[in-house]
Amino acid sequence: MTLNRREPFRFLDPDATLEISGATKNAEIILNSARTILLRGVPKFSVADVVRMTGLSRATIYNYFGDRDALLAAVIQWAVDCYHREITHAMRRHTTLLEQAVEAIVFTRQWRITEEAVRWGGFLSDAERALLFTRDARVRLEEGIRTFSPFIREAGDRGEIRQNVNVEHAAEWLARIVGSFAAQPGVGFDHDSLDSVRDFVRPFILDGMR
């Protein structure tokens, strides 16, 4: 089964994902900022675009977000939250940790190669890349641990892995593995093939937990 590079990822579409906690005005600014990024890309993103799109004043926007970087960070957090919600739904389609882990890897890899994702992350400046991957790296990893921990715990309850596995450590390991598969191409396997990814990871992915 080959991945469909053209398949839309609805969590990247701010029109399809309207669940943002907080004040309505805060949500409006974040969603319209996301729309601007999808249209223009991160490097060309500006508060002026959001002003034009929302009809709000700069003063109002800066009252919620102190500067462009703070607004960009809020939009990135919105996208990350959507990603974790969607990957959880995707993993829940499967009943074993092996298949759930494969789904997480394939889902994340496919997200990285969509046109929408390229607009989000493919043309980040060095400063913006640092914002997403360096300054907030620990936060992103902790989010991955929270997402994957329930799956690890449930696999222990099913007897699929050892019940005394350290859930947090195992979830962190899985988060790191998922991230590495998403960021790097396959050498000994076809990273665009679900079956190839499954065959590649099956001998290794759960060994340390059994």
Walk me through the structure:
There is one protein chain. This protein is mostly helical and 210 residues long. The protein is 66% helix and 0% strand. It has two domains: 11-74, Homeodomain-like (Arc Repressor Mutant, subunit A), CATH 1.10.10; 92-210, Tetracycline Repressor, domain 2 (Orthogonal Bundle). Helix 1 packs across helix 4, helix 5 (97-113) runs parallel beside helix 9 (167-183) and helix 8 (137-158) crosses helix 9 (167-183). The longest helix is centred in the middle third of the chain and has 24 residues, at 68-91.
Summarize the structure.
The chain is mainly alpha-helical.
What is the N-to-C order of secondary-structure elements (H for helix, E for strand)? HHHHHHHHHH
Work out the oligomeric state of the chains in this entry. single chain
What is the name of the CATH architecture of the largest domain?
Orthogonal Bundle
Instruction: Look up the CATH topology of the largest domain.
Output: Tetracycline Repressor, domain 2
pLDDT averaged residue by residue: 78
Radius of gyration: 19 Å
What structural class is derived from the secondary structure elements? mainly alpha
State the total count of DSSP E strands.
0
Low-confidence stretches: 1-11
CATH class membership of the largest domain: Mainly Alpha
